[in-house]
């Protein structure tokens, strides 16, 4: 044999070629094993140093050290790593003879079998050649026992204290302890701001509370390496929703936060030449500026924004014209910005929802319950009592049993609700019996569309014996039209139109046509002036609306006088003392309106309504007296209002 490794691609035609291939493979394995034994101890030392560096980093040691200490520590680790790698400079690849010697030792056979197979015979003596072939046959027979063996780097000799195992255990422990901050803690070792080239770095930090709190910013630090203005007793209390702003002039800026602090995008660009970071404070947490070094750690205690409170200061009151007056108390730590009143139908008890042993279907209202904003004592009320007057006399829910709930909101979006208050919603008072009946049926239909058949039956009943109960042809035709409109209604929109028609017809009957337009004009003028005052209209607009209100009140006085002349005693007879007193009071009120302020006009309008009610009461009593005294003779003077 000449020791040349055979080509594996050549076909193996005899046992000698196969033996050569096996020997070449074993020789390659032996070479790798020797190389591993020589290199692994030094590589193991290097990996131990790297593992120790990761342990120190993940344990957070770099975060607690200043920049200069980080630089020194990193240089020390780099020097140790270079010292460990220095022996590798003397590394040499195993030779063929060293690999053959390893195979000879690994085979366990005497007389170097692996080396023997690589020897050659130079003699031409037949006897020598015969002996040579016999010896090769014995060696080839034992080729299966030639082994390179596993590498044996003998690390115990190089690391008798087994420090590599200790580093591995600490590496696993710190890996899980660092959690999501592994990369951040590892990168902290390379933050050397101001070490290689010291610069004039300034760090400013402050907390900006939300605008609605009305609190000034809280200054945390004024310059680099200055202590923060924090109380010695504990964390700094800040309103929840505040923003922490850290600004650095020169160098990079690295801030690590924890707890309820989260970095957010700045709303404005930072000044030129500075770095700036913003953090939203939603809960308790900490913030630490790691670069530039020298800054303290700030601990924050977030004070949550309490929800506002709202409650009725007293029971709701009914006004003269059927309005609803609410008096309530609101309170909030930073101020209430909005309040509303929500009205809903009172919940029916289970026993009340059963009729003749059969449970009634759930009500299906045609209109949404009334909901309106409340007037606040101030634009941002922290503690105060407010009052709101709302006219709901024309609402379909007027006169129904409802539940009143007040709600209040603050700038942070917190909402509070008052205790539900059960009440009967004020309604307009109708003196005409037919008008009262129409308004009642209108409310029934508006609050439950399922009762349209009951309302139709009631309208049909009102048209029984028209010569006795509804002698006025206009009233009868109006009822007939409402009944036909309701009978033809097949949708909710159509039934809503019926509800509106019933209200308009009832008001026409009650106010006798002319008075209705007068009252409507007066009420429109009052509402227009009130809305203008609330929104802060110009002085010219206030003057114009005030003049319209005076004209409407003058029309109301003229209408009262016209109605007084239609009393049962006859227009030619002098007014009774009661009526004359009412008329005199009306004239006096008319004179007062000439120079009255908008607020005084509102009060005068209420007094006009009271006089109107007194006049109607007198007319009704006079009507009854005249009818009882002369039932036949006074047939022509019967009250023109149908159904009275």
Largest sheet: 8 strands, antiparallel
Distinct helical segment count: 18
Structural class: alpha+beta
Indicate the mean pLDDT: 74
The radius of gyration over CA amounts to 51 Å
DSSP summary, beta strand count: 17
Low-confidence parts: 1-13, 222-232, 566-576, 629-641
**What percentage of amino acids are in beta strands?**
15-25%
Terminal CA distance reads 142 Å
Share of helix, binned:
40-55%
The shape, in one word, is elongated
Summarize the structure.
This protein has helices spanning 15-58, 61-64, 67-85, 96-107, 113-118, 126-141, 155-158, 163-178, 182-187, 433-447, 452-462, 466-469, 473-488, 492-511, 514-535, 539-565, 577-592, 598-629; strands spanning 202-208, 218-221, 236-239, 242-249, 254-264, 275-291, 297-303, 309-312, 317-318, 323-345, 354-355, 358-359, 371-373, 381-391, 401-410, 415-417, 421-424. It is α+β, with helices and mostly antiparallel strands. It is elongated, with a radius of gyration of 51 Å.
Structure notes:
Helix 13 runs antiparallel to helix 14 (about 490-510). Strands 8, 9, 10, 13, 14, 15, 16 and 17 form an eight-stranded antiparallel beta sheet that branches. Strands 1, 2, 3, 4, 5, 6 and 7 form a seven-stranded mixed beta sheet that branches. The chain has a two-stranded antiparallel sheet with strand order 11-12. The termini are far apart. It has helices at about 15-60, 60-65, 65-85, 95-105, 115-120, 125-140, 155-160, 165-180, 180-185, 435-445, 450-460, 465-470, 475-490, 490-510, 515-535, 540-565, 575-590, 600-630, and strands at about 200-210, 220, 235-240, 240-250, 255-265, 275-290, 295-305, 310, 315-320, 325-345, 355, 360, 370-375, 380-390, 400-410, 415, 420-425. It is α+β, with helices and mostly antiparallel strands and about 650 residues long. A hairpin with a 2-residue loop joins strand 11 and strand 12. The chain is elongated, with a radius of gyration of 51 Å.
